[in-house]
Every structure is written in C-alpha cells, then in structure tokens.
Amino acid sequence: MEDKKLIRTIERNPEKGIAIALDLYGDSVKTICREILAWGTDEDVEEAIAETFIRLWRYRKSFKPNKGTSLKSYLYGIARNAALDKCKRLRGGLEADIYQKEEIPDDSEGIEDMVIRREEELTVRQVVAEMEEPDRTIFAMRFFQEYKVKEIAGKLELSEKQVENKLFRSKAILKKKLEERGIRHE
Predict the structure, then answer these.
(1) What is the residue range of 132's domain?
(2) Would you say the C-alpha torsion 69, 54, 49, 47 has a positive or negative sign?
(3) Which ranges constitute the DSSP H helices of 91-134?
(4) Can you state the percent helix, strand and coil of the chain, rounding each to 5?
C-alpha cells in the first residue's frame, strides 16, 4: 500500500489503518523492539510495540512522504525510540520523555507560570516531532533521553562529528521555529 494512502486510512479510520500498518510492518517493529529490549520481558517488548503504533497514529501528521522518507523508515524510527524510552524507564533512569513527568509546583512558581511552561514544553515537543529523520531521533536521544554523543553515534552508526553537526543544526532550527511561535529563551 502506498504511504500516503496508508496515512489517509489511519486518519479516516484509525483501527483499520493501524491494523494494516501492523500487518505490513508489525514483524519488523517487533524485531527492532526485541533487539533493544533483549534483556526485558515479553511484556516489555509488547508495550514498546503498542507504543510504536500509538505514536504512529499520534504523529501521523508529522510524516512527510514528499521529503524522501518512507513510512517504513519513519515507523522504524518510532519503534527504536519507543523501545529506547522503555529501556530507559526499566533501567530506573529519568523518564525518557520529559513531557510525561508529573511535576509538583514549588512555592516560587505560580499556577500561571506552570501552565505557561507546560505549553512551551508542548510546543517544543511539536517542533521536535516535525524534524526530519535522523535529526529528530538524534535530538530526542540527546536532550530527552540524555544519551551522550558517543552513545548516539554508536547506536545510529554515525560518526560523533556527524551527530554533533546534526545537533547544532537542529538546535538552530528549534530556536528559529520557537521564536516564530513567540517563545524566546536565552
């Protein structure tokens, strides 16, 4: 099935679209998740697979078939990130996705400030979701999952210099897009 058609099906009839995506790519997604979570349980792998297809539905509008990325590659990147997020949570590290953290405001931060900060965090997440691959994955691994440049380079089979260059360009793009949306930080 053509990528654009599958995305349209997911938008119009999510159950049918996701079922088709599962049929087409489910085995490969399972392999990716199992490789990353090799030491985890079958339940951990299944949760990562489920999260992959939830993210496909959630971020379907971020997929840009005209930019040269196939839906298969896009989905495999999502699977890798979902499995890495699960892995990070299982290792007892910080939450991989900073937007899932439950936060309790301290006395110095008012409710209004907290709401504004959360809205800004959601905007950052949207801008990152719009990035092209592998930039999106590299940015998420570095700043959301807190991997070191060397670790990212090893996992994605890139040189450290390539990772650093992509991070530099991604930060510049992020800053520009946030400024366009009215968010400025020094």
Answers:
(1) 101-186
(2) positive
(3) 111-129
(4) 75, 0, 25
* One domain for residues 73 and 115: no
How many Cα atoms occupy the beta-carbon half-sphere of 136 within 13 Å?
22
Within 10 angstroms of residue 113's Cβ, the number of other Cβ atoms is 11
Alpha carbon of residue 173 to chain centroid: 17
Number of separate domains in the chain = 2
Per-residue model confidence as pLDDT tens digits over 32-45: 898 888 777 889 89
> Nearest-CA neighbor of 185 among 174, 108, 138?
174
Residue 108 shares a structural domain with residue 168:
yes
Q: What is the sign of the dihedral through the CA atoms of 94, 96, 97 and 102? A: negative
Lowest-pLDDT range of 6-20, 129-143, 152-166: 129-143
Q: Last residue of a domain, which of 93, 120, 139?
A: 93
